[in-house]
Amino acid sequence: MDIRELSSISDIILTGMAEKPDADMIIYGDEHITWSEMRDRSGQVANALRADGVGPTDRIAYIDKNGPEYFELAFGCSFINAVTVAVNWRLAPPEMAYIVNDSKAAVLVIHEDLVEHLAAFEADLESVRRIVVIGSHETHISYDEWRNAHPVESDVHDAQPDDVSMQLYTSGTTGMPKGAQLTNSNFNAAFNNVDWEMTGDARTMVMMPLFHIGGSGWAFFGMGSGATSILVREFDPVAGLQLIESEQISHAFFVPAVLAFFSMVPSDGIDLSSMQTIAYGASPITEDVLVNSMKMFGCEYSQVYGLTETTGV
Prior knowledge:
By secondary structure, the chain is α/β, with parallel strands linked by helices.
């Protein structure tokens, strides 16, 4: 796949569906999602959002660990020129409410594991007019019911380079988290200026949290190359190493702390030879961690220095 003339992230899913509809786009545990299936789900989400009165520039908040629903929302939002706002699921309820309110989100999608948080801050929400729960909830509609009530066919909004595609919150150095608005041209520049040497045969690990540019940005880089994304709900060092072997993962982005944890757990008998490139960044790395990690994986390493505000690179 070649999407160097990216007009919006919807081009990723539309190109993938056209070129390899039946190939695996995302593997999430035992679930295999093809490019055409993701396109259909994204179309349903776009139509569900339209039915809720969502239009261009409206914000959609997502609070959950890593899951395929995030990408359905991201592509669905892109179809209608709305904006995804992934919120750190580790935050306390007042902090979650602050970000949802600051972004002026019209719809909130949250996992059932976090309903106690929702109960604590729901009364403080200012702009949300629809709450959708991944799983089940006694009051709010389930995500599957909300999505599946709508057809898969959806028009795609004519996006402009300066239209915002994603809004991620960074802690900054003072005050409350700041919303970094990433435009279509930001992603286009990133795709054109960084070469991870990934092809459509690559198998990328998406383990970093999607509310961080190291998670969502890395995922879109891989998807934009036509690679298969092995999506991991949350980090576990032993399970992560085993997954590299079982899924023959070739590319991954890790923060230094993850590389350090990998080196602390037993890896004898685990075949890591499929790994071709590890990108790392987001914090400093010690020489010992880097050397031990390079010995462990025996692949190419690429240090990333960037900002959320610059699409991670």
